[in-house]
Specification:
The chain is an alpha/beta fold and 258 residues long. The chain has 6 helices and 14 strands. The chain has helices at residues 13-30, 50-59, 76-82, 129-139, 155-164, 211-219; strands spanning 2-8, 10-11, 35-39, 63-65, 86-87, 101-106, 109-117, 145-151, 171-175, 185-186, 192-194, 199-202, 233-243, 249-257. The strands form 2 sheets. Strands 1, 2, 3, 4, 5, 12, 13 and 14 form an 8-stranded mixed sheet that branches. Strands 6-7-8-9-11-10 form a 6-stranded mixed sheet, covered by helices on one side. Strand 7, helix 4 and strand 8 (145-151) form a beta-alpha-beta unit. Helix 1 (13-30) packs parallel to helix 2 (50-59). It is globular and about 55 Å long.
């Protein structure tokens, strides 16, 4: 039996959230998707609210992962304690609300999703993501289908995580940089991998943000609240086909839907 996993890149602002709601279910049908993980930490441009998480679930997500903007919206903290389907990075301090991984029952058996955050340039006061993820996988070695969203800046750190988990995770993907990379592949050990899924939001933008505002920031304009770009949107994502019995990835494909 095979399982088809859809991993969706960072949802950016209201335009990205609206596009997700309009298109996700048709994409799931066309790609015969069994389980969907969406990174939602930028649905509010910076951070995400509980109401926006519910919109992402209504759109068709099974699990939402987060990242460095997890704590931007303080109202999310209580929500994280009430749901097991929204994950914050597992290597945040243990006293933080919520959980960093979850195990979800499906027709193909249990699927474990792990969310971790990198340390290179993110200035995050976190535990070592390699050690934390390694311990989670070791503690749940009986789960065959393992998915890891590694929210990190550096492609070097992401690639290292992919190789570190090769043969133990079914799929490892990067999020955070909002630019889809061209290295989607199945590693020799049977792990699907891509350094960054990309983003879901305005196609003509700088990582989802208005182009003129972004240029102005680099020119030295006074800071102001980020504004989402307008215009047509895109969804960048990847599909991983897994063997349900072994957990090995059989194929991996990056997609861009406009």
């Amino acid at each position: 039996m095979t399982v088809r996993i859809l991993a969706v890149g960072d949802v950016c602002g209201k335009p990205g959230l609206d596009f997700l709601r309009r298109r996700l279910r048709s994409i799931q049908k066309a790609q015969r998707i069994d389980f969907t993980v969406v990174n939602g930490e930028n649905a509010n441009v910076v951070g995400v609210t509980p109401a926006q998480c519910e919109e992402i679930f209504d759109a068709g997500a099974d699990v939402i992962t987060l990242g460095n903007h997890t704590w931007t919206r303080t109202e999310l903290q209580d929500y994280l304690n009430r749901t097991s389907h929204v994950l914050r990075p597992a290597n945040f301090a243990p006293q933080c609300p919520g959980q960093g991984f979850g195990i979800y029952e499906t027709n193909a058996g249990p699927i474990m999703v792990v969310n971790a955050i990198g340390r290179f340039t993110l200035d995050a006061n976190t535990d070592n993501p390699f050690v934390v993820t390694d311990n989670i996988l070791a503690d749940h070695a009986d789960v065959k289908l393992v998915l890891v969203d590694f929210h990190a800046e550096g492609t070097s750190e992401k690639l290292a995580m992919g190789y570190f988990l090769e043969g133990r995770a079914s799929a490892v993907w990067g999020t955070h940089t909002h630019v889809q990379t061209s290295d989607c592949a199945v590693l020799p050990g049977g792990t699907g991998y891509i350094s960054d899924l990309g983003m879901t939001g305005p196609a003509r933008s700088v990582l989802g943000i208005d182009v003129d505002q972004s240029i102005g920031k680099f020119l030295g304009d006074p800071p102001r609240r980020y504004a989402s770009a307008g215009g047509p949107c895109k969804m960048e994502c990847a599909v991983f086909e897994l063997d349900a019995e072994t957990g090995r990835c059989l194929s991996a494909e990056a997609l861009r839907i406009e």
